Each structure stands twice: as C-alpha cells, then as structure tokens.
C-alpha cells in the first residue's frame, strides 16, 4: 500500500497506541518454535484489539485500535471508577453505561481512561496454559512462563523497545488549524478539545496560561500609562498606586483561577472530592469491605492512631532534612556564584559585553541547576511521601528554590546594595530579552534537532544494509515512523516524576516572580510578559502537536504545588517592592523613618492584610458548581445510607 493510502486507513481506523519492535537482522527461519511477533499479534487480536503491522526504516511497529466494546469490558475488568449522574464515582459496568457521565465531546471515556484500558489489555496478556511456551525472535529463543505477562517478558528481553500513544491525524489537524495556528484570537483556546485530546493536566496548564495572559493586559495598560503620561506634582504617587494595583490584581487573579479550575472540572465530569484518597492509594470500597462489624469492635484504635502519627512526623522530619540540604547547597555553592556574576556585570562597561555575560551565565546556570535537580530527585526517594503527587510536589518546591536563587539574586543585589533603579531596569530588560530568546530557541530547536539526527541515523543505517538496493532512495514513508523518532514530552529534571509541563510551569512561575517582585522598578515589564505569553501559547501548542510525540495522559485536577508558589511570590512581591520604594524615596540612603518611609512600611502591612483578606472575598468555586456538589453529596448520602441499612439488616439476620 502506498503512503497516501496507508494514511487514509490510519485516519479511518483511529489507531491510538503503538508497540515498537526492533527490525529483524536476518530472515525468519522456519521450525517448530513460533515467531515472537506473530504470537504477539495473535494474542492482541484475541484480546479484542485491531492490529496493523508496519515495517518501517528505523523499526517495526504494531499499531493498535480498540472498539468501544473492548474498552468498556476492559474498564469493567479493571474496576475503573467513573462519575455517575448522581455525583458518585462508582465502579464501571458495561451493561449500565447510561448511568455514567460522558465527556464534553460525547465520548464515553476520556483519553486517559482509554489509554489506561489499552495498557490493561496489552499487559494483561498472560500465559494461561499449564506449561512454558517457546517463542523466538531474530534467531533467539525465549520461554514464556506460566501466568507471566507477554509484554513484560518481551520488554525485559529487549524485544519490545517502546510503547507510546499515537497522534490522531484528524483531531491533530483540527487543533493545528483552530488553536496552534490561530493567531487572530490572541488568548482564545479550545480548552474542551485540548482536554479531549491531551487529557486533564495539559488542558489545565493551557487554561491557566490563557487566563494569566488575558489578565496581564490590565497591569500592562496601567504600566504603559505610567510611562507615557506626566502626572506633574502627583508623579510621586504613581508608583505606590501602581504597586497597590498590582498586588490586588495578583490576589484576585489567583482567586478567580480557582473558580475557573473548579468550573472546568465540573464541566469535564471530574470529581476531585476523592482525589486525596486516590493520591494516597486508598479505595473507599476496599476500606468498607475489608472491615466487618466484629473487626471494628476489636481493632486497636489507639495503636493505629500512634502508628499513623509516627509515620506522618517521620515523613515531615525527612522532608525538613532534605530541604535543609538544598538550602545549605544554595548558600554554600550557588550564592557565591550568583554574587560573582552580579559583581562582574556591575564592572562590565559595554552593553554588548553585558548581554554576552548574561547569555553565558544563563547557559552555565542551567547545567548547575540540573545537577541540583538530580540531587533533589535522589533525596525525594528517601522521603516518606504518600503517592506520586506528593513526590512531584516535593520536587517542585526543591527545584524552584534553586531557580529562585539563580533568577533573582542578581536583581536583589542591584536593588539593595547599589540602589540604582536605572541599572536595575537595564538588568530586567536584558534578563527578559536574553532569557526569553534562549528559552524559545532551546525549547523549539532541540526537539527538531533530535528528530533530524535520529532520522539521519535511521536512513543512513538503512542505506548501508546489505539487502538494500543500490541507488534507491530511503525515506520515512509512514506517519508512525516519524512519530517514533520525535522526542518525548519529558521534564528536564525528574522525568520519572514529572512530564514536560514541569518546565513550562517553571518558566511561568519565574516570569511571574520577576514581573511581580520588581514591578515598581519597571512597570513596562508587564507589557513584555503579555506579548511573550501570547506567543508562548501558540509555540507550546505547536511543540505538542508537531515536534513531539503525543504525551501520555496524566491525572491532575489542579496545577498543584505551583499554585502555592505563585501565592508565595505575591507575598515576596509585597516585601521587595516596598524595598524598591524605599530606595526611590530615600535617595540619601540614611534609612530614616520619615513620614514617606513610614507610609511605605504601613502600606506593606496593609497589603499583607489585603492579600490574605481579599482571598476570602471571592469564592473558590462558582455558585452553580457548589449547588451541584451539594446536590450530589445529598444523593450520594441517600444511596449510601440505604445500602448501609441493608447491610446491617443482613448482618443482624445472620446473628439471629
């Protein structure tokens, strides 16, 4: 089949998962031992999957699709919990499909649920016979043991190289046209379509990025106004007024984001009320089934309580120890490096050399921070974290501490020691320009270079094979080959705990800290941030749709630990901007508590109260979401109480 015909078949059948196998180095020999790949294909088809084999240049591929009935039965076998129309998450049953909430696009399962079903089906293929089965691949013979997963065995033997999700060409092209290449709508994004295609975590990131960018236009306009209009005798009030506006803006933005997040979860049918139990690996049904009435009577509650408290405080002490190690590393190793850069920057005379010095510094600090990130990952392994979400949050806090020092210490140095606002503005501009150019260059060029290199190696190797016809051109003719060679969406630090959103959120948090903590020094900084984020939305979309493999879906109901970091940066912004105002109005540097300086100190305390007070004025969830939640809870309590009464009645009957 030609390349065009194969692409049409792929779009029609909707292949979503691919298994990658090495290419055979020799012709398959005939004999009593069954070929490994043929057996795998037969078992996959026996599991109800649609299978297509593609022999490509770099490897051989097995593409998988699944009818809805196959996915539904797999979800029931997995005892998957899905949200019902009464607001309860119940075990999925294929014959009761009408009771479960559908996705915004009308489908029964979300992308994450479908991917989990695929993995359950392919890893659930086990040897159910009473003896070992001999299979071979490329002249080597393997033994498939009883009750052993075929995929697990083939991965251990190096036969299966990789399993990854495939892009859906129809949906991918629609998102390219309506989202990634749609520059006319600025910050508008099809969030529901992004959720259906990429899952909750990536959709939540883009919803946050879009809302953050839209809200940036308010301080950007205010900041531009302060630079264009001369307020005459009232000029000395402009920066304090701008400062108060920015802090209030940040507080309301974070509160309204919580409202938007809860509304999105309600619209997507995600019940986050049980998320904490899921993160701890606790199933409510198992708790209720595992304890009978007699066991509850005789269980030692005090012993269980002391055990839980001991484990809790032991985990806290481990995290304190690891955080202390990171802080000491920052003080002893990173702080001297940062101060040396700040001093060299101050004594450098030409602007070109300052830009060059900043570029060299930003490149060098990346490698230093990655070393610190690897140390953080190793420390997290020894923490008593409960679940992957807790470990990811611990990694976020530790790595952000490293980046916080390397991003802001030079700016603090200029603000507090040299007290030169003009120099500080110059440093801010250079940091924004150089860092954004470097980050966009690295973020968009590295995946393309990796793909080009892998493509060159695969084609070059194919040309030099003995059986390849001389003079015949070699090229990647199928879409699955090109997807396989693309880089994965992984984090630069702690890839086993986080995906590529770690780097994207880190970039946003560092930008938010820079524009907030030094707002009074350079009000125009919000204009730079708004323009950068408009392009960042489309650049990140292109990266996911064109340059990278389709990411594996991850469950995340909120932006997690990053929200705490944004709130921490708001508090830091109150302190740093008050310091900047002192530097502006105390030109003699005598630090005397005069009426103006006293007013700044009073304003600092007032803004801290505003920060914590305003957060209670805006409810964290819309009224309709709260009303639905209350109604669902009442319905769930009614169902549970009836079920509990029936269970007690049956138990009393047995006792009689």
UniProtKB/TrEMBL annotation:
GO BP terms: namely: chloride transmembrane transport
Anoctamin transmembrane domain residues are 194-631
InterPro entries reported for this sequence: Anoctamin, Anoctamin_TM
Q: Which domain of life is it from?
A: Eukaryota
For this protein, the parts annotated as crossing the membrane are: 202-222, 234-257, 324-344, 395-415, 515-535, 555-585, 597-618
Alphabetical list of Pfam families matching this protein = Anoctamin
Q: How does it sit in the membrane?
A: Multi-pass membrane protein
Q: Which residues form a coiled coil?
A: none
Record's keyword terms, sorted: Membrane, Transmembrane, Transmembrane helix
Molecular-function GO terms, alphabetical: chloride channel activity
Cellular compartments annotated: Membrane
GO-annotated cellular components: membrane
**Per the annotation, which location comes first and is thus the protein's main one?**
membrane
PANTHER family under this entry? Answer: ANOCTAMIN
Please report the name of this protein according to its UniProt entry.
Answer: Anoctamin transmembrane domain-containing protein
């Amino acid at each position: 089949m030609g390349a065009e015909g194969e692409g049409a078949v792929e779009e029609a059948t909707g292949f979503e998962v691919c298994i990658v196998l090495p290419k055979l180095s020799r012709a398959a020999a005939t004999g009593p031992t069954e070929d490994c790949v043929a057996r795998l294909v037969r078992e996959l088809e026996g599991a109800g999957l649609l299978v297509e084999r593609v022999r490509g240049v770099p490897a051989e591929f097995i593409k998988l699709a699944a009818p809805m009935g196959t996915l539904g039965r797999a979800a029931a076998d997995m005892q998957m919990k899905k949200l019902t129309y009464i607001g309860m998450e119940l075990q999925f049953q294929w014959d009761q499909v009408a009771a479960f909430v559908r996705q915004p696009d009308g489908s029964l399962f979300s992308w994450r649920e479908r991917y989990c079903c695929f993995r359950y089906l392919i890893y659930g293929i086990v040897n159910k016979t009473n003896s070992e089965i001999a299979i071979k691949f490329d002249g080597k013979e393997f033994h498939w043991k009883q009750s052993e997963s075929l995929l697990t065995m083939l991965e251990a033997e190096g036969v299966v190289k990789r399993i990854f999700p495939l892009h859906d060409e129809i949906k991918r092209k629609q998102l390219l046209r309506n989202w990634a290449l749609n520059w006319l709508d600025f910050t508008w994004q099809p969030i529901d379509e992004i959720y259906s295609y990429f899952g909750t975590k990536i959709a939540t990131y883009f919803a946050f990025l879009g809302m953050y960018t839209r809200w940036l236009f308010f301080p950007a306009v205010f900041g531009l106004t302060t630079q264009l209009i001369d307020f005459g005798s009232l000029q000395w009030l402009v920066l304090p007024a701008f400062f108060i506006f920015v802090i209030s803006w940040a507080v309301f933005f974070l509160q309204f984001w919580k409202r938007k997040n809860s509304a999105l979860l309600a619209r997507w049918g995600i019940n986050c009320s049980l998320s904490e139990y899921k993160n701890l690996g606790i199933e409510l049904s198992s708790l209720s089934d595992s304890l009978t009435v007699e066991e509850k009577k005789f269980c030692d509650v005090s012993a269980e309580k002391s055990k839980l408290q001991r484990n809790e405080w032991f985990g806290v002490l481990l995290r304190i120890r690891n955080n202390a190690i990171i802080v000491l590393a920052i003080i002893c190793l990173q702080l001297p490096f940062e101060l040396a850069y700040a001093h060299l920057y101050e004594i450098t005379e030409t602007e070109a050399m300052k830009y060059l010095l900043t570029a060299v510094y930003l490149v060098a600090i990346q490698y230093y921070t990655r070393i610190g990130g690897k140390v953080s990952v190793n420390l997290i392994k020894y923490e008593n974290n409960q679940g992957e979400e807790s470990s990811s949050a611990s990694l976020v806090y530790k790595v952000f501490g490293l980046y916080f020092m390397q991003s802001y210490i030079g700016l603090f140095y200029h603000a507090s020691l040299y007290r030169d606002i003009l120099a500080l503005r110059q440093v801010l501009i250079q940091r924004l320009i150089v860092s954004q150019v470097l980050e966009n260059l690295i973020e968009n060029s590295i995946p393309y270079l990796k793909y080009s290199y892998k493509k060159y190696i695969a084609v070059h190797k194919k040309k030099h094979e003995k059986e390849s016809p001389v003079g015949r051109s070699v090229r990647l003719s199928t879409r699955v080959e090109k997807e396989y060679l693309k880089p994965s969406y992984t984090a630069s630090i702690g890839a086993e705990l986080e995906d590529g959103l770690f780097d994207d959120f880190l970039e946003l948090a560092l930008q938010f800290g820079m524009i907030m903590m030094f707002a009074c020094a350079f009000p125009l900084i919000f204009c730079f941030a708004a323009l950068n984020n408009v392009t960042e939305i489309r650049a990140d979309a292109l990266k996911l749709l064109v340059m990278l493999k389709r990411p594996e879906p991850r469950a995340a109901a909120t932006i997690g630990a990053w929200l705490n970091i944004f709130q921490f940066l708001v508090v830091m912004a109150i302190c740093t901007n008050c310091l900047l105002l002192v530097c502006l109005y105390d030109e003699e540097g005598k630090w005397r508590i005069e009426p103006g300086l006293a007013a700044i100190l009073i304003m600092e305390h007032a803004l801290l109260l505003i920060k914590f007070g305003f957060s209670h004025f805006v409810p964290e969830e819309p009224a309709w979401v709260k009303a639905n939640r209350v109604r669902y809870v009442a319905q769930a309590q009614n169902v549970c109480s009836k079920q509990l009464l029936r269970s007690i009645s049956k138990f009393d009957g047995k006792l009689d």
